[in-house]
Design a protein that fits this description.
alpha/beta; Nucleotidyltransferase, domain 5; 2 domains; six-stranded mixed β-sheet; globular
């Protein structure tokens, strides 16, 4: 019997530098092959302000916030003594004219290089992360949508193998900047309709095929939007996120959007469970989720926390990182 690689068996740490938040996952592979979480943490520090500009740039303030968050998350991972640490960046850094400057600052300050993921790599790692979720083992043919601040990743699985994977510039920070001139104001219904139409048009232009045979199709959403929705629902029933249903109906999303529509940003922030740093982009995120779900012909979807970080972690634990 071959002995396990001691490095591969040790924990790995992943720091995901996203548009709206920066996250860490420390994970380890069990003897039975499953990947388990040892620690995770998310810091909302939005480095992506201005991402919808023709030539987006990371601001000095945004880069400083991002660097401080990375240092904090590295310190949280350190007690687990990860054998491998990987920092990855997605849409905000990928699209910024000065993204290379930010990556150089991170390397100089932390000693860790930042791997810049292409849209295709991001989508495929998200798909791999989903296969680590034990709650989704019953799904064979399904769609996956990961909504972040800068981009929307779209995948299709058949027999649990990825058959389509692409990344679209439809993230909630980007869409808020594009469609809502004053994100602190109550929602303008015409703007919401315009955003929904834009998302559906971009999906059609992308060539992504909604051709899985089952109707209604099965789908999984990942990302902070649905996490926030579940946290808000949990707060109303006095339960934690883990104790809220992972199956979410479109009716639930519509109801929450209708509730938010007349509220100003300060009023949105008072909703129990609403992260203050997400309250400005949350309405655009819900509109986007509904537009995607309607394009796919869904009446409900599953939510999973096993997304990009889990896919990168699985890769590292295989010794491929």
């Amino acid at each position: 019997m071959s002995r396990p690689d001691p490095i591969a068996a040790a924990p790995a740490a992943v720091i995901d530098i996203g548009s709206n938040s920066i996250k860490v996952l420390v994970a380890r592979r069990q003897p039975d092959g499953t990947v388990i979480q040892l620690h995770n943490k998310t810091l909302d520090c939005r480095i992506s302000a201005g991402i919808s500009a023709a030539t987006p740039r990371l601001s000095e303030e945004g880069m400083s916030r991002g660097l401080a968050a990375i240092h904090e998350l590295l310190s949280l991972a350190a007690p687990y003594a990860p054998a491998r640490i990987q920092l990855v960046a997605t849409s905000a850094v990928r699209d910024a004219a000065n993204g290379d400057e930010f990556r150089a600052r991170v390397l100089a300050s932390t000693g860790h290089a930042v791997r810049l993921l292409s849209g295709d790599e991001e989508a495929n790692f998200i798909g791999r992360g989903l296969t680590c979720d034990p709650a989704l083992t019953h799904l064979r043919d399904f769609y996956v949508f990961d909504l972040g601040g800068g981009s929307l990743e779209c995948l299709a699985f058949q027999n649990r193998r990825i058959t389509q994977a692409l990344s679209l510039r439809l993230g909630c920070v980007r869409m808020t900047e594009k469609f809502f001139a004053d994100p602190a104001a109550p929602l303008d219904q015409d703007r919401c309709l315009g955003l929904a139409l834009f998302v559906k048009q971009e999906l059609r232009r992308s060539g992504f095929r909604f051709d899985l045979p089952d109707r209604p199709a099965s789908a999984v959403f990942t990302g902070g939007t649905i996490t926030t929705l579940r946290v808000i629902k949990g707060a109303r029933h006095g339960v934690e996120l883990a104790d809220t249903p992972a199956a979410v109906s479109l009716h639930t999303v519509h109801d929450l959007l209708d509730e938010l529509a007349p509220l100003t940003l300060p009023e949105r922030k008072l909703i129990p469970g609403m992260p203050a740093a997400r309250a400005d982009v949350f309405p655009a995120a819900l509109v986007t989720v509904l537009a995607v779900a309607e394009s796919a012909g869904l009446d409900h979807f599953h939510h999973s926390l096993h997304n990009l970080r889990w896919g990168i972690a699985a890769d590292l634990l295989d010794g491929a990182g």
